Amino acid sequence: MSYLEFDFTRAIELLESAYAEYRDAGDQMGAVRAARTLAGLYTAIVGDTAVAAGWASRGLTLLADTPDSSEAGWIALNKGMIESGRARKNELFREALDAGRRLGDPELEFAALAYLGASLVQADRIEEGMLLLDEALAAVAGGDVDDFCVLEEIFCQLFAACEHVQDVARAEQWIRVGEAIAERRKLPAVSAFCHTHYGAVLTTAGRWPEAEEALSEAVRLWSLGRRAALREEALVRLADLRVRQGRFEEAEQLLEDISMEADVGAARPLASVHLARGRTELARDILKQALSRIDPLSTAAGPLLSLLVDVDLASGRPDEAQATVDALVACAASHPDQDSLRASAALARGHVCLATHAGDPQACLREALAGFARAHMPVELARSRLELAQALLSQHPEVALAEAQASFDAFERLQAARDADAAAAVMRALGARPGTGRRSIGTLTRRESEVLELLGYGLSNPEISERLFISRKTVEHHVGSILAKLGLRSRAEAAAYAARTKQAAK
Questions:
Q1: CA 85 from chain center: how many Å?
Q2: How far apart are CA 163 and CA 303, in angstroms?
Q3: Average per-residue pLDDT in the chain?
Q4: pLDDT at site 192
Q5: CA–CA distance from 291 to each of 271, 275, 295, 310 (Å)?
């Protein structure tokens, strides 16, 4: 209970007391369970790997005098979590998986399957790893996993893997399943599990209010857990969200105490802040340092190379920008199934073509549009539309205006004010006045505005839930909030209000 209430210190104290009591009572298996659970908590919550290894070893010693049991598999899983070598880590996860299957422990089996799948994805064996994760999640959906903590870990591994390869489509599909499970079993919403990775997925998906809520909660929870490194990971992702929102000062403050040596992930948001401030040399140095520490063909290199292209162009280095594009294209070619990487490479090629007045920027940017649409990445999709509008300005002004309007509308929905201003500037250059339809709603959040629009089309709560990939309970909450904010008495009045607002915006 203390663990579920996020009182991690108390949970550890109780387990240590339980271990002593089991040993005094001669209950070897009870002591083993307490030892391996402590190993897991010291790994995941505290981050003291030496202490975790000590408890894991204690559990193995106690198992020497007991019959074959799945506890050895759980200990192997714990050891795999703290193992730094990828080959040995996967070997331990496979050992745990085998024990779970051989001894009929489904919770161990599917927890190990999820950890192994996520580890393979991290090693860029993406298709193989995602297949294992999908199987583990299917087992959860099918009721094979009962333990709440194991269920949480399986979803967490899925979100971590999806974040690593920016697989928004897969994450959103399983989010829907998870929320349905949470509602059916009266559990905390699965969207609250593993807030750090989940928040990053929501950021990429353009669901920024939800991302902010998840990441803020992650910072709070990891502060309770005393694991500074995990709190920093949450802060880095929150800073990335702030950068996308154009709130650079806040992003810089979030990154102040984070060491680049400890977290390569901080490089992109920090370099983005420097680029926005015109400090291109600092941005370039940060990205170069980060890239020197990772495999240039790994999926992790893609976002860094993509930003480096922008930095190279902003600092007047078109030749180096082209070399960076070539590196990004090679990275994307190494992962042919990753729409987001291929789209990023196409966008970067288009950006360089525009800057150097060479090549076919329109073809590159249309390729980027298609890729980001498949990858469910609305921010990058809107930015590609804006680049395409600029490419079309002189030859096809009407088409350019349509693309600029579409990007402006998308940025308005996302509440990306800085990008919306850039799109508005292009529209004004074409003699058009940007509309302000969605901003007139005022007090509503982006998600509430979307729900209101769907109410205007006459959709029911279950239909809105399906359309927006959120639970019915969440839809009910949004409808209630809309009615309160707009002073309306019923969903019928809300539908009529939405229809009037839409007509007035035309």
A1: 25
A2: 12
A3: 86
A4: 46
A5: 12, 17, 8, 15
Length in residues, the chain: 506
Range from 11-25, 30-44, 228-242 carrying the lowest mean pLDDT? 30-44
Tokens of 58: 């204690």
pTM of the model: 0.73
pLDDT on residue 94: 97
Residue 170 to residue 182: CA distance in whole angstroms = 18
DSSP structure string for 267-319: HHHHHHHHHHTT-HHHHHHHHHHHHHTS-TTSTTHHHHHHHHHHHHHHTT-HH
In Å, how far from its chain's centre is CA 38? Answer: 28
Closest CA to 95 of 70, 128, 125: 70
218 in Cβ contact with 195 (< 8 Å): yes
CA distance 395 to 104: 67
Q: Residue 374 in contact with residue 339, Cβ under 8 Å?
A: yes
User: What tokens appear for 191 in the block?
Assistant: 């969207």
Which DSSP state fits 152?
H
Q: Specify the CATH class of 446-505 in words.
A: mainly alpha
Q: What is the mean pLDDT of residues 285-298?
A: 94
**Domain coordinates in residue numbering, the chain:** 8-204, 205-277, 377-435, 446-505
Q: What is the DSSP string of 441-495?
A: G-SS-HHHHHHHHHHHTT--HHHHHHHHT--HHHHHHHHHHHHHHHT-SSHHHHH
Rounded alpha-carbon distances, angstroms, from residue 340 to 233, 245, 300, 333, 349: 22, 20, 12, 12, 14
Q: Two tokens at 462?
A: 């279950």
d(CA 220, CA 380): 29
Q: Which candidate, 33, 73, 70, places its Cα nearest to that of 55?
A: 33
Q: What top-level class would CATH report for the domain 8-204?
A: mainly alpha
Q: How far is CA 117 from CA 85, 90, 130, in A?
A: 16, 9, 6
